[in-house]
Design a protein that fits this description.
Strand order of the largest sheet: 1-4-5-8
Mean pLDDT: 93
Strand content: 5-15%
Shape: globular
CATH topology of one domain: Butyryl-CoA Dehydrogenase, subunit A, domain 3
Distance between the termini: 20 Å
Helix content: 40-55%
Low-confidence stretches: 338-346
Amino acid sequence: MNSIELAEPFERLLADACPPAVVRAIEGGADAAPLWSRLEASGFLGTLVPEASGGAGLRLADAFALFVVEGRHALPLPMAQTMLVRALLARERIAAPPGSIAIAAQTRVAADGVVSCAATPYGLVADSVVVALADGWRVLPTASAERTASGIHGSLRADLRWPSLPVGAIAATSPVAWPEAGAAVTAALLAGALARVLHLTVAFANDRVQFGKPIAKFQAIQHQLAVMAEHVVASHMAAEIGCAGAGPLPVPLRAALAKARTSEAAALAAPMAHAVHGAIGITAELDLQLYTRRLHEGRADYGAEMHWNRILGRALLDAGGGALDFMRGALIPANDELRSWTPSSSMT
């Protein structure tokens, strides 16, 4: 099955199950269980789970197209993260907990045993959260945590705090670079959100008439749309490279590249979109803000572009060669990966 065959039914599912009205309702505190039930029933959550464990046994590269669709629809649940965690648990023959699973962006264990995860993406709605510890990683239930919302309008982030590690929490010891895993998934979600922001902005520019003609006819607007389109395409390519690989986990430096480029694009494209929309762009009634808010939050999740650019810069210096050799050796998928990797052909 190629990425288009995989993504098209998922696109139809989210178009029906997750319209902007549902996104707004869940952001406002409505029960997310009905939406999650539909996602669970669809079978897509098993995309990365090995066939021996009842899943589809596909790779992260295959699931990339689903992540982009998720970003395009501003899905207010951590579906991509859940897919990844379920696959890793299945590899260790551990049953996944019910419900959605987020990935903590940062974890701190205090001397008195208190476990805290600040600014956890989807922390308000996730049923469980993966936390990285010195001796492996755990999947902690959020029901036993103290949740503190970010206070930002519509944000699903939350600070989570457990007085101690919950008894019976799922434990795994497989080595996982969780910051890179979270970064690769978030980059794909950002690529989808960027594509939707461009689509909305082009449509508005064609519909908005000023001085007797659509504003899309004005050269200044055309320039902004062209720059936005460049960032959207570059981000999609970078995010796809970030998810290219042989298994369910990304290659760390490719994940760094993906997150650095998509975070940079998010910071530039969001204000451009609002500039084209004018004052109406910031209103809650317009769908644009559903996506630009996600661009700003996703940019920072698991590290913004400066963080990942530093990692890439250090790796380049450590490699000791030229930039082109470094890119070929560490960032660009090898020929055998490309032959087996079917890139998604649609970005909009």
